[in-house]
Amino acid sequence: MAGEPIAFSFAPAIAVLPLVAFVVALAFGRYMPKGGAFATILATGGSLLFSIWAAVAVAGGNVHHESLYVWSPADALELHFGVLIDPLSALMLIIVSLIAFLVQVFSLGYMNDEGETGLPRYYAGMGLFSFSMLAFVMADNVLMAFMFFELVGLCSWLLIGFWFREAGPASAAKKAFLVTRFGDYFFLVGVVGIFTAFGSGLFVGDEAFPVLAEEAIRNGEQVLGFAPETGITILGLLVLGGVIGKSAQFPLHTWLPDAMEGPTPVSALIHAATMVAAGVYLVARMYGLYALSPTALAIVAFVGGFTALLAATMATVKQELKQVLAYSTISQYGYMMLALGAGGYVAATFHLMTHAFFKALLFLGAGSVIIAMHHNENMWDMGGLKERMPVTYYAFLSGSLALAGILPFAGFWSKDEVLYEALIHGQGTPLLLAAYAMGLLAVFFTGFYTFRMVFLTFHGKPRTETAEDPHGVRWNVKFPLVVLGTLAAVAGFINMAPVAKATGTHIDFLHQWLNGPEEAAALTAHHYAELLENPMFAGYDPAGTAPYLPALVSLAIALAGVALAYRLYAVPEPEQHTDKLGWLKTLWFNNYYQDEYQVWLAEGVTYPFAKAADTFDQGVIDGVVDGVSSVSLFSGSRIKRIQTGIVTNYAALLALGLIGLLLVLGVTGGWFA
Amino acid sequence: MVPIVYYLLLSAALFSIGVFGVLTRRNALIFLMSVELMLNAANVNFVAFSIYHGNLTGQVFALFVMALAAAEVAVGIGIILVLYRNFGDVDVTVPTTMRW
Q1: Whether ipTM exceeds 0.85
Q2: Percentage above 90 pLDDT, chain A
C-alpha cells in the first residue's frame, strides 16, 4: 500500500525471525557455540527492534492491516493469515519480544552455565514459543489466533517438560497441555460459532465480527438463532473458555503451579509474556464483542475477582519460592480479567504490561536465587541472601514492590486503575461490586505473601550452609534483572491516571496510545467506552467517584499486608507463623483441594461415564452390527445349499423361475382376466 | 396358408420336449440333443413370423441361430469329452464337485 510507513513491510519478520531461529537451533544447534543460544537471542532481538519500529509507525497515526496468505479462497468464507498492527498489538509485540529476549539472555546463565544438556532443544523451543506468541498477537482474524493459541500450548508442553526424563516435569507438561486444551475446546466451538454467526472472523475493518455483532444488536437481527444479545453472550462465553484455560483462571488454574517443574526461565516466559498473557490479550483483542454483552462482562469480572482472591490466599502459605510466584501470577491475571469485565480495557492492558515486567523480573530473580542455592527452592532454607547477592536483591525488591502495589512502582498504578474501574462501573451491579470487593481483599494478601517471600529469602540469618555461601551469578543473569528492575520501577509512569485527573495534565499516555489512530476507530479504547456506556449494549454508568480515595484505600491495604509480613518475618530467625491459621493453612496449602476434586471428577465421574459409554458401544451398537452380520452368515449357510453342483437342478430352477415370472406377469398384466 | 397358431403350437411342443429332456435325462449327450430341440423351436418361430410379417429378418436370424447351434455343439461335445475323461462317465449327476 502506498503511503504506509516502511516499518510495516517488515511486520511479518517480527514473528518469522524466531521461527527461523527455531529451525536453525534445532538443526544446527549442536554444532553452534552455546547450543544455538545466539541464534534465538539475535532473532528475538531483531523482533524487538522491528516491533519498536512498528510501534513508532503506529505512534505516527498509522494502523497496518494486511492479508498475507489466503489458504481457503471460498467466496462465502475466506480463511487467511494476516497481520494487524494497531496500538494494542504493537504494545504487546514489544512486551513479548522484550521479555523473550531478556529471558533468553538469562538462560545463558541459568542453563548454559549450569551445564544442562539438550540445549539446542531448549533454545529451539524458546524460538518456537516466541514465534507462536508473536504470530498470535499480530493475528488479524480469530481462526489464525486460535491456531497460534494452540501452538503456544504445544510449546508450553515442550518446555515445561524439558526435563522429561524425570516424572514430575513430564506429568506437569501433560497436565498443562490437557487442562488448557480443555478450555480450548470451548474456544474452538466459539470460533466456529463466530464464523457461522457473522461469516467473518476478522478483528478489524468493516467486516470485523465485533462490528457485525454491534450492527446485529442495533438492527435486532438474530445471532445463531437466538436474540442477538443472547447469541453474542454465548459466543463470548465460549471464547472465554479458552481464556480461562490459558490465563489460568478458576477453575482451570491448576496447571499453572505444576508448570513450575519446568526450567525457571521458561516459567518467566510463560507467566510474563508468552502463554498466560495470551488469554487476557484475546479478550482485549475482541473487546468489541464483549463490550456488547453485560452478562459476559459480569462473568469475566467475577471469575477474575474470585481468582485473584483465591490464588492470593493460597500464595500466603507456600514454602517454595516459585510456588508463591505461580499463585501470584494466577492472582494478577485475575485482576486483569476483573478489569476487562469491569470495562477497564486500558487498565487491563496497563496491568498486562506492568505485570509482564515485574513478573518476569521476579521469576528471573527467583532463578538467580535458585542458581545461588544450588537448585533448592525452599524459602525456609534461604535467608540472609541480601548481603551476598545485592543486584538480585534490589531488582527482586523492585519487582516485589510493584507486585504488592506500593507507590510509586509500576504495579501500584496499574492495579489501582483496575480497582478504580471496577469500583466506578460496579456501583449498581452487585456481581461487579462483589468482584471489586474480592479484588480489594486480595490486595492485602498480595502485600503479605510478596513480602513474606522477600523477607524469608533475603533477610534474617542464613538458615542453611548453602545460603551462607551462595553460588555467584554472572552478567547474563544480572543484565536482564537490572533492565527489568528499572522497568518495574518506572513503567507505571506512562499512565498515572489519578495524577492526570488531579492536575488536569495529559500524562495518561497509555490512554492516549490506546485511543489510537482514526484509521481503525472500531479498535480504540474510546470506541469501547462508547459501547460500554450505551444502554443498548453493556449499559455501564460510571460513577463520578474521584480516584484518590480508592487509591489511598488500596495502598493502605497493601501496606497493611506488607507491615504484617514485616512484623512476622523480618526477624533474624522467622518461624512458620502461618501454622497459627490451623485448618485454614491446611486448606490453602492443599490449594482448596482443587486438584483432588478435579482428579475425582476425572476418576469418579468421567471415567465411569466413559466406561458406561464403552459398555453401551460394545454391547448395543456392536451387538446390532454383529447381529446383522450373523443373520447374513446363518442365512447364507442355509441358502448356499441350493448350489448342488448337479446341472439338472439348476435347469429345473431356471424353468421354474421362468414359469413363476410368466405367472406373475400374467396375473399383473391381466392375461387371465 | 396355414395359420400362424399352428406354427406356434408346433414350436411350443418342440420346446417343451427339449425342456423335458433336460430335466429328466441324465446323459449329457441327450442334454445336447434337447438343447438343439429348443433352439430349433425358436427357429420355427422365427421363420413363421417372417412369413407372417412378410419380411426376411426372421429367416436371416434363423440362419444365425443355426450357426450358433453348431458352435454350441462343438463346445458342448468338448465339455462332455472332458467330463468323460475326468469322471469316466457322461452322467450329469456324477460330477458334483462344483458346489457348496
Answers
A1: yes
A2: 17
